[in-house]
Write a structure and sequence with these properties.
Layout: E1 3-6, H1 12-23, E2 27-32, H2 39-42, E3 47-52, H3 58-67, E4 75-78, H4 95-121, E5 127-131, H5 147-166, E6 173-178, H6 195-207, E7 216-219
Parallel strand pairs: 1-2, 1-4, 2-3, 4-5, 5-6, 6-7
The structure holds NADP nicotinamide-adenine-dinucleotide phosphate.
């Protein structure tokens, strides 16, 4: 069975990915900041190993890569993400908080994808995805605001698009996926769909991801989104 590595696997969409892939018989390499507190993740059934990883800790990323040296990873899911301060007008942006959102949402997915691309290249399926947001779409921005989150996800999209082009030579396909508005801690209770539906849809999109459509910005229901 294939292997996937997931960041932010202790709750929300990352946890749901771990649950669904483990239930399908995949080997799941789950990462999260505090494995000892990851009760829901630790309770999942299936072939799951859990590693501690704060995605902004680049030394830890390298350490984990050494531990996993030579292990084929069919699918890398960059799931960890933060929103940052909410409802902040353009005159009062917290620039330190903005930098932190960039570290988690933009820089970490590149670092992790770059470091583990060796493992992905060794695998059969050879796929890397990042969970982005339609909030990162410049074409679809009709409501303004959300400077921090929008810019971090727009930059993530730019980063993953370049990676899709650069990793073609290693036969690795890359995509950025919008999960929909999902009832997680980030999405809140008023969101439109459950994590189960979002992840089931994204898994279908991932199933259809190959070199011929690498570099997509795609919704969980399979429709392409405007950059
Ligand atoms: N929910 C939505 O409606 C929605 C919509 C569009 C896009 N997204 C995107 O989907 C992804 C998952 O979001 P979610 O809804 O599942 O959010 P969530 O429930 O808030 O979960 C966020 C996850 O990211 C992890 N994380 C945050 N900072 C981290 C760090 N420095 N190192 C490692 N892990 C870290 C959290 O771990 P801790 O428990 O340790 O904090 C948690 O596992 C994010 O990229 C988000 O931007 C979500």
């Amino acid at each position: 069975m294939p292997t996937c590595l997931i960041t932010g696997a202790n709750r929300g969409l990352g946890l749901e990915f771990a649950k669904q892939y483990a239930a399908e018989g995949w080997k799941v390499i789950a990462t999260c900041r505090r494995p000892a507190l990851a009760e829901a993740l630790n309770a999942l059934e299936g072939e799951i190993e859990v590693h501690p990883l704060d995605v902004t800790d680049f030394a830890r990323i390298e350490e984990l890569a050494k531990k996993l040296d030579g292990v084929p990873i069919d699918l890398l899911i960059n799931g960890a993400g933060i929103y940052g301060p909410r409802v902040v007008p353009y005159g009062s942006v917290d620039y330190a908080a903005w930098a932190e959102v960039f570290r988690v949402d933009t820089m970490a997915p590149l670092k992790i994808s770059a470091v583990f691309s060796k493992n992905v290249a060794k695998s059969k399926l050879k796929r890397i995805v990042a969970i982005t947001s339609n909030m990162g779409s410049i074409g679809d921005n009709t409501s303004g605001g959300s400077y921090v989150y929008r810019s971090a996800k727009a930059a993530l999209n730019a980063v993953m698009k370049s990676l899709a082009i650069d990793l073609k030579q290693k036969q690795i396909a890359v995509a950025v996926l919008h999960p929909g508005w999902v009832r997680t801690d980030m999405g809140g209770p008023g969101a439109k769909i459950e994590a189960f539906e979002s992840v089931a849809g994204m898994r279908e999109v991932i199933d259809g991801l190959g070199l011929e459509n690498s570099g997509r910005f795609v919704n969980y229901d399979g429709t392409d989104l405007s950059w």
